């Protein structure tokens, strides 16, 4: 069973207990870059959907009643907020890539252990390993 965390060391920034190999860093970089490309494609897709909705609104609004217009406006607003959240995620991934270059990325801020590549690829903004995250959520 896991021992409770030593409170005397809490708050102190843990030094990395392990070093990451260049190969592993490259793996993280590739995973992040792939994620960024994926998000960019998603963003482009959303933008073209917004453009399409906008065009629909302009071209076939003649027969629309107020409800139709309202629905289209709502759809467009939802698409825009979706686009914005994708853009935010792209920014997160780009920041992660910058931090990776500086060597300050991918280490758990609680225990100092390296965060697994798979987790970083899925959650580029992750700052804790799964174990620490679960411990924190249980509190
Ligand atoms: Zn940890």
Automatic annotation (TrEMBL):
<dbReference type="InterPro" id="IPR037187">
    <property type="entry name" value="DnaK_N"/>
</dbReference>
<dbReference type="Pfam" id="PF01258">
    <property type="entry name" value="zf-dskA_traR"/>
</dbReference>
<feature type="zinc finger region" description="dksA C4-type">
    <location>
        <begin position="108"/>
        <end position="132"/>
    </location>
</feature>
<feature type="domain" description="Zinc finger DksA/TraR C4-type">
    <location>
        <begin position="103"/>
        <end position="138"/>
    </location>
</feature>
<keyword id="KW-0479">Metal-binding</keyword>
<feature type="region of interest" description="Disordered">
    <location>
        <begin position="1"/>
        <end position="25"/>
    </location>
</feature>
<feature type="region of interest" description="Disordered">
    <location>
        <begin position="52"/>
        <end position="76"/>
    </location>
</feature>
<dbReference type="InterPro" id="IPR000962">
    <property type="entry name" value="Znf_DskA_TraR"/>
</dbReference>
<dbReference type="InterPro" id="IPR020460">
    <property type="entry name" value="Znf_C4-type_bac"/>
</dbReference>
<keyword id="KW-0862">Zinc</keyword>
<protein>
    <submittedName>
        <fullName>Conjugal transfer protein TraR</fullName>
    </submittedName>
</protein>
<keyword id="KW-0863">Zinc-finger</keyword>
<dbReference type="GO" id="GO:0008270">
    <property type="term" value="F:zinc ion binding"/>
</dbReference>
<dbReference type="InterPro" id="IPR020458">
    <property type="entry name" value="Znf_DskA_TraR_CS"/>
</dbReference>
